[in-house]
């Protein structure tokens, strides 16, 4: 049988949308990927940021890991590493590790009897009521939803942010859509598929800035909190999922695991695309602590730091710039973790079972700035 050539097709832009990223790739066997095909996939990924492979039923965890690793051959460990003090980390309830491929995690919702060596696992889809300062009333929970937390996949302490993330949809509940509410006074809403993963482009986020703000983000750096997912565990998110309220609820250093100052991460606000050279505004808004300015001064007031970053990022999460992927079973989505932000969305009923596999690897090199 003739082998079809690898094709890259940009995703269609829905009516009313202004997304300028995303593509679908067909004609490749990810279980048996050759170097030429990988180079085409790599170029497509950095051109389009979010790449969809349909019909990946049976893709092994090993092949998923190997595709992810191929973007950074020197990487090896799961992107968040071995989370210290897991019970206090906000990531603790969301991940189960595949025993025979420990870099691959299982996420989702509901009870799963058996999957890839895991037995009788209870998966819990993150819900905004556990993290937001306020939430949608329970009686409206299945009709309305919010962005849970806009983020970059990254430990942001000790380990460098992964180059890419892969997500495989194994089981997807269907049949409902939800209205996503921003609840920030703008009146903005977005119609989304149940349990979508929402993406926005960091490059668009940069392009929307004023010339003055572009200069600021090109020349400033963000310092992240030590052990950020424990540090933020008592704090609560804004209604847009874009960063936290400042109420003094962050844990003091004395309540965190031991801190090694050499492992605290300070990154440029903008990261350079390794293929196109374009700049993306890449900041994890929930984990930020300080801003280091070009003139050598530091902005230490946490509330001010958060407000500055929020005002820089908020325009690019407006509905017309959001790509909410409509998951179909056996979709594999590969995304540029250094060029997009993403968020979990949605509220599932207990019997709506969702099963996904996730893989990302802590990078061997830090992000490159301007």
From TrEMBL:
The keyword DNA-binding does not apply. The keyword Oxidoreductase applies. Pfam families: TauD (PF02668). Gene3D superfamilies: Clavaminate synthase-like. Keywords: Dioxygenase, Iron, Metal-binding, Oxidoreductase. Its cofactor is Fe(2+). InterPro entries: TauD-like_sf, TauD/TfdA-like, TfdA_dioxygenase. One of its GO terms (molecular function) is metal ion binding. Coiled coil: none annotated. Residues 18-358 form the TauD/TfdA-like domain. Belongs to the TfdA dioxygenase family. This is TauD/TfdA-like domain-containing protein. It comes from Penicillium olsonii.
């Amino acid at each position: 049988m003739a082998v079809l050539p690898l094709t890259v097709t940009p995703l269609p832009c829905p009516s009313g949308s202004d997304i300028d990223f995303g593509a679908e790739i067909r004609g490749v066997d990810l279980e048996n990927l050759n170097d030429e095909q990988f180079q085409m996939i790599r170029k497509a990924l950095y051109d389009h940021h979010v790449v969809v492979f349909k019909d990946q039923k049976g893709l092994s965890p090993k092949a998923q890991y190997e595709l992810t690793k191929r973007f950074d051959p020197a990487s090896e460990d799961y992107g968040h590493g071995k989370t210290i003090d897991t019970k206090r980390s906000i990531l603790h309830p969301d991940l189960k590790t595949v025993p025979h491929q420990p870099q691959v995690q299982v996420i989702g919702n509901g009870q799963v009897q058996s999957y890839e060596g895991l037995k009788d696992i209870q998966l819990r889809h993150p819900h905004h009521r556990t993290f937001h300062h306020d939430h949608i009333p329970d009686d409206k929970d299945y009709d309305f939803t919010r962005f849970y937390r806009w983020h970059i996949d990254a430990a942001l302490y000790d380990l460098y942010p992964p180059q890419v993330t892969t997500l495989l949809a194994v089981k997807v509940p269907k049949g409902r859509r939800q209205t996503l509410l921003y609840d920030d006074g703008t009146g903005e809403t977005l119609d989304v598929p149940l349990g979508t993963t929402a993406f926005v482009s960091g490059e668009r986020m940069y392009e929307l800035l004023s010339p003055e703000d572009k200069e600021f983000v090109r020349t400033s750096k963000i310092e992240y909190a030590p052990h950020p997912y424990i540090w933020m565990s008592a704090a609560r998110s804004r209604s847009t999922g874009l960063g936290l309220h400042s109420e003094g609820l962050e844990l003091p250093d004395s309540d965190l695991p031991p801190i090694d100052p050499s492992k605290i991460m300070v990154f440029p606000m903008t990261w350079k695309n390794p293929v196109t050279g374009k700049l993306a505004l890449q900041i994890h808004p929930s984990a930020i602590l300080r801003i280091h300015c070009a003139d050598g001064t530091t902005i230490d007031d946490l509330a001010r730091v958060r407000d500055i970053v929020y005002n820089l990022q908020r325009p690019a999460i407006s509905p017309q710039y959001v790509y909410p992927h409509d998951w179909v079973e056996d979709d594999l989505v590969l995304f540029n973790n250094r060029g997009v932000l993403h968020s979990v969305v949605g509220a599932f009923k207990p019997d709506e079972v969702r099963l996904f596999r996730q893989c990302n690897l802590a990078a061997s090199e830090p992000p490159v700035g301007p």
